[in-house]
Amino acid sequence: MKNFNSSALHSHSQSTNHIRERNSRKYSLLSVLPLRFSLRGYGFCMATLFLFCFGSLFYQLNGGPPKILLDIRQYLGGSTYLDDHGQPAPRVLPFPSQVIYNRVGKCGSRTVVILLRLLAEKHQFNLVSSDIHNKTRLTKHEQVDLMKNISSIPQPFLYTRHVHFLNFTRFKIEQPVYINIIRDPINRFLSNYFFRRFGDWRGEQNHLIRTPGMKDDERYLDINVCILENYPECSNPRVFYIIPYFCGQHPQCREPGVWALERAKQNVLENYLLVGILEELEDVLLLLERLLPHYFTGVLNIYKSPDYKKMGNMTGTVRKQTPTLEALQVLYHRMRYEYEFYNFVRDQFHLTKKKIGLKSVSKPPAYSNDFLQQLALRTPEPLDEDEELETDLEDANSWLVHP
Ligand SMILES: *[C@@H]1O[C@H](CO)[C@@H](O)[C@H](O)[C@H]1NC(C)=O
Ligand SMILES: *[C@@H]1O[C@H](CO)[C@@H](O)[C@H](O)[C@H]1NC(C)=O
Ligand SMILES: *[C@@H]1O[C@H](CO)[C@@H](O)[C@H](O)[C@H]1NC(C)=O
Ligand SMILES: *[C@@H]1O[C@H](CO)[C@@H](O)[C@H](O)[C@H]1NC(C)=O
Fold first, then answer.
1. Minimum-distance ligand 2 atom for the alpha carbon of 145
2. Among 6, 11, 271, 278, fewest CB within 10 Å belongs to which?
3. Does 112 share its domain with 36?
4. What does each C-alpha distance from 374 to 184, 345, 370, 379 come to in angstroms?
5. The total number of structural domains that make up the chain
């Protein structure tokens, strides 16, 4: 920060001298007035550029966003405070060769992982999908182990696991580019609630056999009771779920509050190439295709192909009960940080869409009662995420052989 200020002063005074010198030459002319103003404007402009230039340099030296992310954003054009460099945009889209998708549970990641299986073959990158589905936070030692493991995968690779954000920079390992997808928080919660109890398209009987440990009291617990009587499953910190994926491994990242929220937001800006929202999955895939062509070219064709649609048919026959409006409102209040984060991510996503030239469908504001009533029914579920992913992928592979 000290550096930031001194460099700003330095570049500013430099450009003021610059103006004075050039002004003195045409001093006598009255008509020079507009010119003086425009030169002053020019000076300010240059000073601002210097400021951003030095600023972002020091920012990066202090562990700011990975350079490749800035390069990609710059290539896209437009500007956010993070990419105002004043350097010419690169002519070729930079190619990140390390990508992490730290997929959030019940946010459509099963769909995406199946697509990735197909894409990895098509584009010859290494897809590593962790088979650990129930461990999102790690000890410091486990973090270092995992990051070393990830870094040792032959590049280009895409690594995916249900895991809270890992800060490679902190351990002096090169930071990969992150991507992710989230979803309306209450819809995610409901999807998880009923999936835990009744499973998915493979049928309820199947699920009952696979989850013998669950007592009937729990399985058939009315969701309104769960919410209104503050069962742990329906209360904080358990419903503070999405933010920790973006905040990181710090214990405070799991405490519902502003600290975790703000850190998660900042992290989205600094380390994520794209965080899509499941409600606009086709646009997410389109953007991935544009931003990471070496990984995602052709993904929309696959997604829209009849074969894939057939697979998409094997989806949520999960018994869903819509909570009462009262319960939804209580839950909504309990998840206010999650919503603040979701809305932030959605706005960022729409911004990126705009840069690429895609229109955003405007949704009603999250606060109306109408919205709450529709909430549980709104999201079309392409193929829901599943804790036991691997067996489904076997199914996927059976038609993968004939593309
Ligand atoms: C995760 O699941 C495995 C088996 O699938 C189990 O042995 C292990 O105890 C679970 N770990 C946690 C933290 O729940
Ligand atoms: C890292 O890789 C090694 C060998 O492949 C494996 O034994 C180990 O469990 C991995 N560690 C983590 C944290 O994934
Ligand atoms: C990651 O670690 C770096 C260096 O310790 C730190 O500056 C940065 O704030 C951390 N980022 C997150 C999101 O934890
Ligand atoms: C999806 O399933 C329904 C009912 O099982 C069937 O009528 C329909 O043809 C299927 N669609 C596709 C694309 O397979």
1. 13
2. 6
3. no
4. 12, 21, 6, 9
5. 2
pLDDT at 217 over 50: yes
What's the pLDDT at 319? 57
To test the pocket of ligand 4, the residue of 304, 305, 313 to mutate (highest count of ligand atoms within 8 Å of its CB) is 313
Residues 6, 136, single domain; the answer is no
pLDDT tens for 355-389 read 888 876 655 444 344 544 444 344 334 333 444 33
Domain carrying residue 176: 98-400
* Average of per-residue pLDDT across 225-244: 95
Listed residues 38, 62, 86: the one ending a domain:
62
Q: 36 and 105 share a domain? A: no
Q: Whole-angstrom Cα distance, residue 186 to residue 203? A: 23
pTM over 0.70: yes
| Torsion sign (Cα): 51, 54, 59, 62 | negative
As a whole number of Å, the CA-based R_g of the chain is 25
What's the CA gap between 389 and 118, in Å, rounded?
15
Considering only residues 135 and 200, tell me which one the structure prediction assigns the higher pLDDT. Answer: 135
If asked whether residues 327 and 243 sit together in one domain, one would say: yes
How many angstroms does the Cα of residue 123 sit away from the middle of ligand 2?
26
- For residue 293, being part of any structural domain is answered with yes
Q: What pLDDT does residue 232 have?
A: 93
Same-domain check for residues 41 and 146: no
